[in-house]
Structure formats: structure tokens, C-alpha cells
Design a protein that fits this description.
The strands form 2 sheets. Strands 3-4-2-1-5-6-7-8 form an 8-stranded mixed sheet, with helices on both faces. Strands 11-10-9-12-13-14 form a 6-stranded parallel sheet, with helices on both faces. With 430 residues, the chain is of the alpha/beta class. The chain has helices at 17-33, 83-97, 112-121, 157-163, 169-183, 194-202, 251-263, 281-293, 308-312, 330-337, 348-353, 368-380, 382-390, 398-414, 424-429, and strands spanning 2-7, 36-43, 56-58, 65-69, 101-104, 126-130, 188-191, 210-212, 238-242, 269-273, 297-299, 317-320, 342-345, 360-363. The chain is globular, with a radius of gyration of 22 Å.
């Protein structure tokens, strides 16, 4: 089986959850299932400068992983205006791979135009799309989060115009029509959580094209050991944040919660692990001020996958304070793999993954005082940590996820009709 994977960035340059999952899946399919193909990641000038004479670049010395330089992207419309460069680059590359399956992990940077270009270059291939977030249905950075920080339950012309007051109503209509047209080209749209699937169903996408496909993680090294409580009374009061520092991941909310705990005398330690790359100066100023105001918090900067076990060993709880719904954060699976209960928001994909009172605790989203109350309860009740830690179930592994994908790919290849399209031979003739 030959598979072309396309992702909006490479985990060696931007180690986000979807990038890590996409590359991990590609390597698992290659190493354990004998799949051939290519992992193609898009980059911009923020990550790499364009090289003379080509849009393609090598990355990490791997012959089957490449970068394609794509600038000039329209994030609102998910459109790549450089259609000439896109087609001139993708057509020969796709022809050389000759894929049976083309799996898009995002439309960012590639744009809606890439789907049509690849369909033309590989008319017999089956197309799969994983919706790692809500970009196709939400122009506000795919977060379903309003510009003033409120959770949004779904797009509508009036609601979207409140986030983009300068855009005419027809822009939202045209965006929605284009996204529906583009996603209709895919034989299957995969969602990593029931919550995400429900958001796409509510937006009017057909149920028969939407399939649940949970995420998984690599389990190469040993899990972090059970940390011994430092305090004589057995307190479990060390909290850890793992993820990129930005306004969506809730680091500011967590720092304010830590400040509240310090003011009322609740003993605790908070460590934040994650980089701040590509963040605006105004946000970084607010973050540094919040860090200074929280005396028990420390920011330790970026980390790698190889570092994670050692970092997890130093904390009792993993906190996921995201201020948006989330879809299916890999950090929750990592926490469970290392036996750490999770404290997260009480809605969306994160609340679906963490069972309140069974393997973690829920806190109100975007509410520092509410989060502080949950952290205080966690720190002061060591028996609670013991009970929740014992309730953690083994997370799904990337090996299991690869098995699920192979089964899906084979099902699509065995069908004479990909999705609702005509048979492949008829498509070629047309």
C-alpha cells in the first residue's frame, strides 16, 4: 500500500499534537505494516526560508519525509493563492509516489486548492481527511472560540460576523460552501473524539462520511515512576503543564489560579513546560507578568518527546487548562500513560477523555478561581490522588491507531465506489 500523508507542519519544527500524531502514524504504518509513501509537511518563512529553484526541502535526513514551502496563505478562506507553484510542485511529486491513499491531516498552508490538484494527479487514490480541529467550520483559527473568549457552539452568519465585523456576510457563505465542496471530495472524514464528530454533524456534514478515529501515542520508553510525596502528610501538590504557550492552551488561566493559591497560603508547585515561539509580543508581555505574579510557578521552556518521561516524574497532576473546547489532546494520553491524573476543562474533547472523579477532575473553563478551587482540593487530599491514579486505563497506542487506519484504508480500496464518486476508471475517463 502506498500512502501520501500531508500535514500543515513537521514535528521537528513545530511539535504540536496533530503534527506528532500524523508523523507517528506515518512511521508506524511504514515500519510495522510495510506501507510505502511520503510524509509531506508544509512550512512557511516562520520556520524555513525558501530555497532557490524549488519549493521542496529535506528534513532530518529521512528520504521519505519532506517539506514543501508554501507562503501567501489565506487563513480565513483556507486558500492557497499560489496555485501555479502548488500544482507544479505537487503534480510530479504525487506521480512519483503513485499513492493508493492520500491522507490530509490539515488544510492549513496547503489550502483547498491542493485537494483538487491531488485529485487530478492521483484520480484512482482514495482521499482521507482527519479533522484535528474545527478549521473547516470555524474561520476563527478553528477554535470555536469567539474573539472575546467565549465558547462557540457552532458557526452562523450572525455569530461569525461578530468575530469578523469587517467582513461582509457573503464571505462566510462562500467560505462555508467551499469547505463543503472540498470535504465532499474525501472518502472519509476522521474525527478523534465524539465531541468533534458532533460539532461537524451539527454543522450539517453527512454522518456517513464522518468516522470516529481516536488518537494514540508511542509507548517506546518506560513510563514515569510513581513520585513519592515530598511532604510528610503525603500531599500531592505538584502540578505540571505540558504544551505550547499561547492564549488557547490556558497557561494564563493556570498562572492566575496559582497566584490565587499563593495568596490564600495553599502550598503547591507549578511547572510549565512548553515553548513560546510565534507568539505576539503583547501576549508574551502578559504571560511574563502573570508568571512574575505567581511565586510558586516556573516556566522551563520547550521540551522534546525524549524529555517527557523525566518531566512527568516530577509532577503529581497534569493540568490541561485550555480555554477552548479542545478535540483530543495527546497530552492527556501521555499523562495517563505515566499514571498521572488530569485536571482539565469541563467541556469538549478534553472532558470526554477525562472521567471526572474516576481518572481526573474537571474545572470550569476559563475560570481561574474555579480552577484554583480544584487545584486546592487536589493538593490537600492525597487519598484522592491515589483513587484517581488507580482508575487510569491504559491509553490507546499509535500501534493500535495504525491498525485501525490500515483497516479503514483497505476498506476504501476494496470498494469499487470511493465515497459517493463514480468508479475510479470512470473518473479517469471523465
Amino acid at each position: 500500500m502506498r500512502i501520501l500523508h500531508l500535514c500543515h507542519n513537521h514535528p521537528d519544527l513545530q511539535p504540536g499534537g496533530s503534527e506528532v500524531l500524523a508523523r507517528g502514524l506515518f512511521r508506524e504504518l511504514r515500519d510495522r505494516h510495510g506501507a510505502e509513501g511520503l510524509f509531506l509537511a508544509a512550512v512557511t518563512a516562520a520556520h524555513r526560508q525558501r530555497r532557490p529553484g524549488t519549493l521542496l526541502q529535506a528534513v532530518g535526513g529521512a528520504a521519505d519525509e519532506m517539506l514543501v514551502w508554501l507562503g501567501h496563505f489565506d487563513r480565513f478562506a483556507l486558500s492557497q493563492p499560489d496555485t501555479y507553484g502548488l500544482a507544479a510542485t505537487l503534480a510530479p511529486l504525487v506521480a512519483s509516489v503513485d499513492p493508493d491513499i492520500v491522507h490530509f491531516h490539515h488544510l492549513l498552508q496547503f489550502g483547498a486548492e491542493a485537494v483538487d490538484a491531488i485529485r487530478r494527479a492521483a484520480p484512482r487514490a482514495r482521499l482521507v481527511f482527519t479533522a484535528h480541529d474545527f478549521f473547516p467550520i470555524c474561520p476563527q483559527e478553528g477554535q470555536l472560540l469567539t474573539t472575546d473568549g467565549r465558547l462557540c457552539r457552532g458557526p452562523s452568519p450572525d455569530a461569525c460576523r461578530r468575530c469578523f465585523p469587517g467582513k461582509p456576510a457573503e464571505d462566510f457563505v462562500m467560505r462555508d460552501l467551499q469547505m463543503r465542496d472540498v470535504l465532499s471530495d474525501f472518502d472519509r472524514i476522521l474525527l478523534p473524539s465524539e465531541f468533534a464528530r458532533g460539532r461537524y454533524l451539527a454543522a450539517g456534514y453527512p454522518a456517513e462520511r464522518l468516522a470516529l478515529m481516536p488518537n494514540g501515542i508511542a509507548c517506546d520508553g518506560p513510563a514515569a515512576p510513581r513520585r513519592r510525596p515530598a511532604a510528610p502528610d503525603g500531599r500531592r501538590d505538584r502540578f505540571g503543564f505540558f504544551g505550547h504557550i499561547n492564549r488557547f492552551k490556558g497557561g494564563m488561566v493556570l498562572l492566575e489560579a496559582s497566584r490565587i493559591l499563593s495568596e490564600d497560603g495553599t502550598a503547591h508547585r507549578l511547572t510549565l513546560h512548553g515553548g513560546t515561539a510565534y507568539q505576539p509580543d503583547a501576549f508574551l508581555e502578559r504571560f511574563n507578568a502573570a508568571l512574575e505574579a505567581a511565586p510558586m510557578a516556573r516556566h522551563h521552556g520547550p521540551y522534546t518527546g525524549a524529555d517527557l518521561g523525566g518531566l512527568m516524574a516530577e509532577v503529581d497532576w497534569v493540568v490541561v487548562p485550555s480555554v477552548w473546547w479542545e478535540n483530543a489532546p495527546l497530552v492527556i494520553l501521555e499523562a495517563f500513560r505515566h499514571g498521572r491524573p488530569v485536571i482539565c476543562g469541563n467541556a469538549g474533547g478534553m472532558a470526554e477523555m477525562v472521567r471526572d472523579g474516576m481518572d481526573g477532575l474537571h474545572a470550569p473553563i476559563g475560570d481561574p478561581a474555579g480552577l484554583a478551587a480544584v487545584l486546592r482540593r487536589a493538593a490537600e487530599r492525597p487519598e484522592l490522588w491515589d483513587r484517581l491514579a488507580s482508575g487510569i486505563l491504559p491509553p490507546k497506542t499509535i500501534a493500535q491507531v495504525a491498525e485501525d487506519h490500515i483497516s479503514l484504508y483497505q476498506e476504501l480500496l476494496d470498494r469499487s465506489v470511493p465515497g459517493s464518486r463514480a468508479p475510479a476508471e470512470a473518473a479517469v475517463a471523465a
